[in-house]
Design goal:
Blueprint lengths: L1 H18 L4 H14 L3 H12 L13 H7 L3 E3 L6 E3 L4 H17 L12 H70 L3 H13 L5 H26 L7 E3 L5 E3 L5 H16 L5 H20 L8 H26 L9
Antiparallel strand pairs: 1-2, 3-4
């Protein structure tokens, strides 16, 4: 899988730059691979410049957004002479090579064994020593400058790979959790009536970003699904499932009859929490989801012609699955219902 390959490449860059086993020039190429594997278009453009050079026109000026991109990734600097922002364009390979060449040259420079004869020998030797000294000083400055620039770019590559690695790993974890919740919810609904399964189809079929009415139907289907689940689960967990009133731990009487599915879900969450003997996120997450759906429903009932966006509809569907999954898994832990066993 591309995502797994990208994570492996990220780890190679991060660990290689940390322990010094990976040259920054190689890290730049691997970062380009990461950007390609993750379809990160902006980073592909940046890292293509980092590996192949920043494009210039016939006058030597940077083309298009190249200057802004380079400055964004550490290449910009303010000149002490005129206060303007400039950008260094050397490739990381050039910087590393120059720094290495300067270091090698410095170690080979020496005045040892030098001699001169004649009337001006002392002056000649002095001039020679001064020239060698100045050359060494200049090479040290050049080496330091190349090393400084290379360090900036190395930090950019490390930061890119580290952030990508964390993001991709979190995404994998989130996808794994949602896959579990989705499986639990689907298994549970399949154990119920055909009508509940049809509600899932209704939700999926309604996610059409070009049809506001269908998006509204998707949210309504989520609400009906929560209503059906709340009725079924409350019948299973409540000692007196025929009662129309549930007294909460705060002493508040909740009407759990008819279409008061929010109250039923709150009651279920409280019963599960008490059964487990520990605090869970079930109650607050259920209320959060229901509030979102109810707010949309209230606006529609009041005649407010506010179109539901595809993002709002998708959020409702995602939250419905996530929160129902969390509710059902905690229900299984509390009551051991085999139908909801997440290991199945």
């Amino acid at each position: 899988m591309k995502k797994d390959d990208a994570i492996t490449t990220c780890e190679k860059v991060v660990s290689g730059l940390e322990d010094g086993s990976l040259p920054a020039s190689r890290a730049a190429m691997l970062c380009l691979r990461i950007a390609r594997l993750t379809n990160d278009v902006d980073s592909i453009e940046w890292l293509s410049y980092e590996n192949g050079g920043y494009p210039t026109d016939s006058k030597g000026l940077l083309e298009g957004n190249a200057f802004a991109i380079g400055c964004k990734h550490g290449r910009g600097y303010i000149s002490a002479k005129d206060g303007k922002t400039y950008m260094f364009c050397q490739l990381i390979t050039e910087l590393e090579s120059s720094a290495q060449s300067c270091s090698s040259a410095i170690s080979s420079f020496s005045t040892s064994g030098a001699s001169a004869g004649g009337e001006y020998s002392n002056a000649a030797l002095n001039n020679f020593e001064v020239g060698v000294h100045n050359s060494i000083v200049q090479m040290i400055q050049d080496s330091r400058e190349c090393t400084r620039k290379a360090t900036i770019l190395r930090g950019q590559y490390y930061d890119f790979a580290l952030k990508k690695m964390i993001t991709l790993k979190f995404g994998n974890a989130a996808e794994g959790i949602f896959d579990l919740y989705s499986s639990v919810v689907n298994n549970y609904l399949n154990s119920l009536s055909t009508g509940n399964v049809l509600k899932i189809d209704a939700i999926q079929d309604s996610l059409d970003e070009h049809n506001p009415e269908k998006l509204s139907q998707a949210v309504t289907s989520c609400r009906r699904l929560l209503d059906s689940v709340s009725t079924d689960l409350f019948f299973k967990v409540a000692k007196d499932s025929k009662s129309k009133i549930f007294k909460s731990s705060t002493g508040k009487d909740l009407d759990i009859s008819g279409d008061h599915y929010l109250n039923r879900l709150s009651a279920i969450a409280e019963i599960i929490t008490n059964k487990l003997g520990k605090n869970t996120l079930v109650g607050s997450s259920v209320i959060y989801l229901c509030d979102i759906i109810e707010n949309i429903n209230d606006e529609q009932c009041k005649g407010v012609h506010k179109s539901i966006s595809i993002d709002e509809a998708r959020s409702c569907v995602l939250l419905t699955y996530s929160i129902l999954g969390n509710l059902l898994i905690n229900y299984h832990q509390a009551f051991g219902d085999a139908v909801i066993n997440p290991s199945k």
